Amino acid sequence: MNQEERIRFQELFASFREVHQAYYQAMQYMTQKIGMTPIQFLTLRILSEKPFIGLSEFAQLIRATNSTASGIIDRMVKNGLVSRETPATDRRSVVLSLTPKGEEVWHQVNEMRMDHLSPILEITPEEHQQLIRIHGKIVSILQKIRDRNTGSES
Q1: What is the residue-wise DSSP string for 30-93?
Q2: What is the pLDDT of residues 55-81, one digit of tens each?
Q3: pTM strictly above 0.70
């Protein structure tokens, strides 16, 4: 890799890091205002999109261990936002879903997020499409690298 490529590489990943940090800080500010953490917000989002998932699948989606995921769920069950049920067909598994209170909180918080972050829409539709296209290309490249490293190429 030559010097110019190194600089491009560093700039690209510095940009990702800056966007991620800025988004996380915005989410942290917003969720703190309502007494929630970003991971609890993420949990609400995941369970609204994938009701009745298991704890292991949830842990994978948040990129955490089952133990960490279980702790998050425990606190949200205690707050009445999430239900943890054991299906009659498999007494060893647990399925997670939002309670009616959790659904209500999710809708309120998601609406706040949309309002809070709506200035992002100042980018033009063309810039939006370019960004989505470029992100898709980067994800594809990184997945190929992952597949090559794990030996799971298709």
Answers
A1: HHHHTT--HHHHHHHHHHHHSTTEEHHHHHHHTT--HHHHHHHHHHHHHTTSEEEE--TT-TT-
A2: 999 999 999 999 999 999 999 999 999
A3: yes
